[in-house]
Amino acid sequence: MAHKSLTKAISRELAKGNICYVNRESLKITAIPDLAAGAADTPERQAQVEALENKIRRYYKVTRMTDYEEVHVMKDFIHEELSKSIKKELKNALKREEPKRNFMRVIENDEILEQYWVNFKAKWYQEWVRGYLLDIYKY
Question: From CA 135, how far away is CA 60, in angstroms rounded?
C-alpha cells in the first residue's frame, strides 16, 4: 500500500517537472528532471538515467501526467466553486489552441485564484500518484 508521505513527496517532485524512481525496498525517491519539462540534457543526467534504467527491476518509475491528463485536471478545476465569469473564462481558455498556456494565463492574473489552483492541483496530483502506486503494487 502506498504511504501518504511517499505519495506527497512523489507528487511534489512530479509537479516540479521531475520523473521519480522509487526504490522498491527502501522507498527512497530519486528525482530526475524530465526533458519534456524543458530541462537540458546533461551527461550527468544521462548517466543517472542509464544507471537507474539498468536496475529498473529495483525501482518503480513514476512519470509526470500527460498533457491530456493535465488538461483533464484543469477541466475538473472548473467544476470547483468559482464565479460564473471565471468559469466561463477558463472554459474558453481550454477550447483554444494551447489550452494549458491559456488556462495558466487566466489563473496567473488572480493571486487568490492561483493559490486555489495550486492547492487543487497538489491534491489532484497526490490522488493520481496514489492510484498509480496502487496499480503498481497490484502487479
Answer: 11
Name the residue among 61, 64, 67 with its Cα closest to residue 34: 64
pLDDT tens digits in sequence order for the chain, 139 residues long: 457 888 999 999 998 888 999 998 998 999 998 886 565 688 888 898 899 989 989 998 998 888 899 999 999 999 998 999 999 999 999 999 999 999 999 999 999 999 999 999 999 999 999 988 888 766 4
CA distance 130 to 41: 29
CB environment 33-49: b (16+ within 10 A), e (fewer)? bbeeeeeeeeeeeeeeb
The secondary structure element, H or E, covering residue 70 is helix 67-78
Q: DSSP characters for 12-31?
A: HHHHTTEEEEEETTT--EEE
Task: Give the span between the Cα atoms of 84 and 42, in whole angstroms.
Answer: 46
